[in-house]
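Reply to dn_fold:

You asked what the input looked like. This is it:
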Amino acid sequence: MHIKKSHAALIAASLALTSSPALAEDARITCTGTVSFVLNGGVPSSAFANASVGESVTLTFDAEIARQLPFGDYLHLINSPSSSIAIGGASDGFTYSLLNTFRIRDNFGPFGDVVALEGRLASDASVIFQLSLSDPSGLALDSEDVTDFYGTSFNLDDYQPSFYLLGATGSVQIDLTSVEIDAAPGGPVGTPYCTAAPNSTGSIGTTSAFGLQAPGENDLTLTASGLPTQSFGFFIVSSEQGFVAGAGGSEGNLCLGGAIGRFVGEDQVMQTDFGGEIALPVDLTNVPSPTGSVSVQAGQTLNFQLWVRDTNAAGATSNFTRGLSVTFQ
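and this is what came back:
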């Protein structure tokens, strides 16, 4: 049964500024539809340059509980590597971006109930696709927890649906026929190792992973938890383990050895949310190393850790989470 959240409960959740570690990539959403209109040539710079009226559309994406916002709201990031869209015989992926987001809002002010997705195409990141289900009456939803909707096929008659691709000069409009939510494939993977030092919250930061261990599936999301809120950090990776106390002048322990790669590309250096977490969908075909990006192979073991900014009595410092070792199959 879905539980209506009171405003008092949401405010209390915000003031606590804590959350239990959320499993990344909690839900898989599948949407189908049909192209109903192509305006001004559509989106010619993308994989769907030849999209035409009547073609079938399938959109599949994996949503993570990754960002806890004020008042208890969650902004779900999209695991870009495992998400895709197909129109007719053409298909495309999602470019990696923190702007690829999914939300479920119950009684969102004058907008009522809203289910909304926004993302960017891999073939042309300037092409935005937006999908929304809105119910101004606020009667369609009674929860904002995506796990409450596992096994749900939305009754589109209860909503005002909208789905389109928007390019620089044109667009492709799609009539939705179904929207379904279920648990994402995969599960927790990896083995924690190494001793971490407490950070300014008094807690020890941890790193966990969720997804599939087959590199070909390209489906792995890292989550760091137990961190100070609103602090910048980034994940690091190596095929070797190690131990260096106070590495880089920090108050933490570096648990990696050998050649260490840093996830510092576009949108990969992130700020912890109001629950003290950071999540990163990992593109297993593009893992950083000191000599350039590499593709993960079956049988390979990688070790991950998060390096995060922190403070102590003397001022600014940094810290590390525990390490996490993942063997791919």
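The longest strand covers residues 27-39.
Hope that clears it up.
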